[in-house]
Amino acid sequence: MFKPVWGIIGIGWIGQEMAAALQKAGKTIEAACSRHQEKTEAFCQQYGVAKAYTDYRDLLANPKINIVYIATPHSNHYEVMKEALLAGKNVFCEKAITVNSDQLEECVAIAKEKNLAIMDGVTLFHMPLYSLLKNDVLPTLGKIKMIQVNFGSLKDPNPANRFYSMDLAGGALLDIGVYAISFARTFMNGDPDVMLTTMERFQTGVDESSGILLKNKEGEIATISLTFRAKQPKRGMVAGENGYFEVYNFPRANQAVLTDPQGQTKTIEAGNSEDALLYELEAMEKYAADPKTCQTNLDLIRSVMKIMTDVRKQWNLVYPFEDKD
Q1: Domains, in order of start, for the chain
Q2: Most buried of the four, 6, 25, 105, 324, by CB within 10 Å?
Q3: Do the beta carbons of residue 281 and residue 105 sit within 8 Å?
Q4: pLDDT of 145-192, one tens digit each?
Q5: What is the reported pTM?
Q6: Is the pLDDT confidence value at 75 over 70?
Q7: Measured on CA atoms in the order 229, 230, 234, 236, is the torsion positive or negative?
Q8: How far is CA 238 from the centre of its chain?
Q9: Rg over CA atoms, the chain
Q10: How far apart are alpha carbons 114 and 109 in whole angstroms?
């Protein structure tokens, strides 16, 4: 019987959130790693972690660990994930899981060869609400016509901020756009074959704001608006011939509002927003116990990454380290 034992690489705020979720759920955290010994030791003491490392390769060499959670900057997700897979570890990597499709596909191939599971940190993929919307509500809308997604975050415009760093794969697309595109792709019945986009660059060269339009052969159109320089509601809307539903705060949503063509509304609820990370870790443990079960989720992750890669190609936005992969 598979007994999950976790290791955490990266102890920033999201690493702390996941450690707290693991601790709350009574999971076993064998080790944590960051470059700073004292901070890592304090992290381990706070969250009941057995061992502290300053080199992630030492963590990967620990034979007790069978699931590695990666919460480092985007720019080195690929490197750490690849080494974790080669070390025989299942991988739960924060979003964006890699910076381009080539990186992801290489890791997928290694995972398949070694019968390991890969998952990313897009919370909406594992929120109970989305299973209900996809399986029970979406079919009632008839033919899907339009999907709209907004996500805007007001970031400090300091060029030294990691969100604006080319070297750290900054920009709105990989940070918040991955959620918006994941929402759209969840409710599209096929991959897009038409993509139109425009982007405004920040002074460092990363994408500050963008608009993305997707269309697939089924005739479904998705429009996505992203920005790091203006607050927008985290709103997703899916419209079909028989009505539409709206989801606010969609990354960790537990509620949607369904509206019929006559304007009558119905509130749909499932799950708890505060348990978003618990849903994720439970899904990851299921996938690790039987990697075949992660295929549907992995197909979505790969589709989203392909869209983001194609969008950046249209923008001619290449991170400095990509040529070295």
Answers
A1: 5-123 (3.40.50.720), 126-277+305-324 (3.30.360.10)
A2: 6
A3: no
A4: 999 999 999 999 999 999 999 999 999 999 999 999 999 999 999 999
A5: 0.97
A6: yes
A7: negative
A8: 20
A9: 20
A10: 9
